[in-house]
Amino acid sequence: MFIKIDLTSDVPIYVQIKNAIIEGIARGELKEGDSLPPIRQLAEDIGVNMHTINKAYNLLKDLGFITINKKYGAVIQVEGFNGAFMESLKEELRPIITEAFVKGMDRDAFIKLVEGIYDDFGGRRNE
Amino acid sequence: MFIKIDLTSDVPIYVQIKNAIIEGIARGELKEGDSLPPIRQLAEDIGVNMHTINKAYNLLKDLGFITINKKYGAVIQVEGFNGAFMESLKEELRPIITEAFVKGMDRDAFIKLVEGIYDDFGGRRNE
DNA sequence: ATATTTGTTATATATATTATATAACAAATA
DNA sequence: TATTTGTTATATAATATATATAACAAATAT
After folding, report:
1. Is the CB of A82 under 7 A from strand D?
2. Looking only at Cα atoms, what is the longest distance across chain B?
3. E strand or H helix at A67, and its extent?
4. Is residue B34 part of a domain?
5. For residues B81 and B64, what is the distance between their CA atoms, to the nearest angstrom?
6. Distance between CA atoms of A38 and A58, rounded to whole angstroms?
7. Residues B24 and B46 occupy one common structural domain
8. Averaged over A9-27, what is the pLDDT?
9. How many Å apart are CA B33 and CA A70, to the nearest integer?
10. Domain annotation covers residue B127
11. Contact criterion met (CB below 8 Å) for A102 and B30
């Protein structure tokens, strides 16, 4: 687990950790069934408090990216997208797109940006 | 100005107001040169504190959507996108796209979603 | 000229969020 | 039996969000 935290960022640490782990899955570094480190260990590794990791893990659970139990710890298990996810995705996306549109960025330019990010995950396929 | 605030939302009120005003520009209801209501008036209209409006206006100014001065108040004046905007846009977009990708949403499905939102602003053109 | 309206600034208070620090618990593991 | 695990409970501190008053200086209206 290589997670770099930017303490100057306005993005909360537990959100940065959540993002980094989802990135790890997207890049294929973390696969279904893989275990994440115990919260105390990861906390020491990246130099933050145990509860901050715990918060990140529970957020990942709520978002449907991992399961947590005492037997196996935190295990990558991705719930596919559903209606609720699509709704929250739209709500997140809308103000971002609106800002870009108002600033003169046309549809094609925005789509190019999206394609560029998607290409980072290359030919990777989700099972 | 028709701004509806969702007090149960986890999105701060001043951000909701900022988003609503940018939406207004995108929909063509607010045009370059138009003045926004005085902060006290808008505050009373939507039932929030003066400082909350002030914060929203100053955020809009920092983001390059309005200018503020005592003579003309808050006036719509959109700064076109630049490198800094593109960078922050990418940073905002990346974790959202990554989540969608990991959940099995492919590039084309995501782009369709983007196109749907762009279509809300119809044939409108930004000068 | 005078009063009002404007954005701005200054305090103060209250609540929620974020992050850390310790401690303890129950279940699983070594 | 001791250790490790996620979990829960308190406590503290800093920051963010929102409200409430008050006052200021500049512009506007009467």
Report:
1. no
2. 53
3. strand A66-69
4. yes
5. 9
6. 13
7. yes
8. 97
9. 60
10. no
11. no
Task: Determine the Cα–Cα distance for residues A103 and A19; give it in Å rounded to an integer.
Answer: 27
Which range of residues forms the domain containing residue A20? Answer: 13-76
CA B55 to chain centre: 14
B96, A75 Cβ separation under 8 angstroms: no
- A105 CB near a chain B CB, below 8 Å? yes
For residue A91, tell me if it sits in a domain: yes
| Cβ of residue A74 lies below 7 Å from strand D | yes
ipTM: 0.93
CA gyration radius, chain A: 17
Residue partners of B77: CB distance under 8 A and separation at least 6: B32, B33, B65, B66, B67
Chain B residues with CB-CB distance to A29 below 8 A:
none
Binning pLDDT at 50, 70 and 90, where does residue A122 land?
Answer: confident
Q: Are residues A67 and A111 in the same domain?
A: no
Token look-up 């935190």 returns A74
pLDDT in tens, B62-118: 999 999 998 889 999 999 999 999 999 999 999 999 999 999 999 999 999 999 999
A88 and A63 share one domain: no
- 3-state SS, residue A52: helix
- CATH number for the domain spanning B57: value is 1.10.10.10
Tokens of B62: 């920092």
**Cβ contact (<8 Å) for A111 and B115?**
yes
Residue B124 φ then ψ, to 5°: -55, 140
Count: domains in chain A: 2
Strands (E), chain B: 66-69, 73-76
Mutate to test the interface with A, among B27, B102, B111 (most CBs of A within 10 A): B102
